[in-house]
Design a protein that fits this description.
The chain has three helices and five strands, in the order αβββααββ. The protein has 133 residues and is of the alpha+beta class.
Length: 133
């Protein structure tokens, strides 16, 4: 009985490590993709008291807060961005901008990038702070 619990705990840890590795890889692919589009990476995996921001990129006029989702299908990835998560991302972005005055730009955007089988599906301006009720 005890060995079964230990085995289950090991499986859970292994799955978490695999998921984290997959997420980091998807974030690296996404950062490289944004850089080919002319954006500069400001931060990766920025932790705030409201949550973590996967990626923050900017050009001269816009800062983009990017949520990266790596899933087996685009539908599953897209459905994983709940209104609760959107609110958390918006709050984290507000903190990040308040703490990093040099990141201020004329425009701010929230993009979602879906990484499915190594392919990038970009959803620019996926949500806005005023969209949440």
């Amino acid at each position: 009985m005890k060995s079964e619990k230990t085995l289950d705990a090991l499986k859970i840890r292994s799955n978490r490590r695999r998921a984290e590795s997959k997420g980091r890889n998807a974030e690296a692919i996404t950062a490289a993709w944004f850089e080919t589009q002319g954006y500069t990476t400001l931060a990766r995996r920025l932790r705030t008291s409201r949550g973590e921001l996967d990626l923050i990129v900017a050009d001269a006029s816009m800062v983009i807060f990017v949520e990266v989702k790596a899933r087996r299908t685009a539908r599953v990835a897209a459905e994983s961005i709940t209104s609760r998560q959107q609110a958390r991302l918006i709050g984290a972005a507000e903190i990040a901008l308040a703490e990093n005055a040099d990141w201020q730009r004329d425009a701010t955007r929230f993009d979602v990038i879906l990484v499915v089988s190594g392919a990038i599906i970009s959803i620019p301006d996926a949500f806005r702070p005023g969209d949440l009720q």
